[in-house]
Amino acid sequence: MIDRRSLIATGVAAGGLLAAGAGAQAPQRAPTDPVLGPPPPGIPPIKLNWAFCVSIFFNERIRIQSDSGRVFVPAVGGEVWGPRLQGRVVPYSGADYAGAHGLDATYALEASDGALIQIENHGYMKRLDGKKTPRVPAPPRKPGTVPNQSFDAPPDSQVPLRMRLMPVFDAPDGPHAWMSRAVFVGHGGRYQNPDHTIFTYYEVL
Amino acid sequence: MRQFTPPPVTTKGNVGKVDMAYAFQLKAKFDPAKIEKTPRGGRIFQGITSGTISGPGLKGEVYPDSGGNHGLVRADDQVEDVAARFMVKAENGEWLYFSHVGYRRPDGYFRIQAYFDADSGGPYAYLNDAAMIGTAEVSADGREITYTYYQAL
Fold first, then answer.
1. Which one of B119, B150, B151 makes the best mutation probe of the A interface by having the most chain A beta carbons within 10 Å?
2. pLDDT tens digit sequence for A141-154
3. Which terminus of chain B has a smaller tally of CB atoms within 10 A, N or C?
4. In chain A, how many domains are there?
5. What is the pTM of this model?
6. Residue A1 placed within a domain
7. How far is CA A96 from the centre of its chain?
8. What are the structural domain ranges in chain B?
9. Which domain holds residue A104?
10. β-strand B110-117 against A184-191: which pairing, if any?
């Protein structure tokens, strides 16, 4: 399922992952995971069309020590660029509110014509080094104190990650209405200096 | 509202690449659809009666009458906001949960994003964090749908 090619592709996207040494680690998958490839004859491959990228900057990450481990990672702002959409991320218009499983983000994009477009960004992050990011167990709370609820998210150059997305957009009538009628799939890459993620979205044709 | 100025970093070369791999195909049969007009649109009632899944990623059978299509047809553009849920029994006997969202358009475009739950210790655990996209082809009578699932690697 995770082959060397996908690791290398992620490394290229991360801009120097391989040079940083992570390439020496073989990509891991569970031994029982199926090895998937192109479809057999008679089943057409699925076609994607690059639509746009969204660069989002971050400056804080909060995790609530509940059963779901709910996080709050606000999208402080960013840029939208690419062939089908240009604009910006509306500052502080939402966040990743992920719970027990995967990404669960909602925020607003503003197209260059001023239209507001809502994104619900769902997806999964899987470490390619076969390790699990340990959830730090909550220490016993002392009465009258609040624990430190901040956490960090390393860039791909430190922890190789496969981040893949299944976003849903809602766009107003007009030139962006197609986004409310098309299925998308996406790629996420983590970068630092400053802390940001680049999401690349493809329209499923 | 708080303001933000993007920092002077070059991000525009970093276009992420996605490889799509074929996972499996589901040939499913459904009851005839009933559509009720509601304040939200045309609510679809269509039970799933059977189905067979084959492919390198999964082999199994749909559990009959375990759910079906309950999407909404929009009043204005007649696009269906797909919603489907049902249960599958894999060939090893374990239960899997399937959920579809996506769009079915009057022009024939029918694409889904699929979500799954599988036992995290089992051979289908990869489904739990797979970004899985599907195409769907509907028979002339609307009662057979062939879903083809591709994983974003």
1. B150
2. 888 888 888 888 88
3. N
4. 1
5. 0.89
6. no
7. 10
8. 20-152
9. 45-129+148-204
10. unpaired
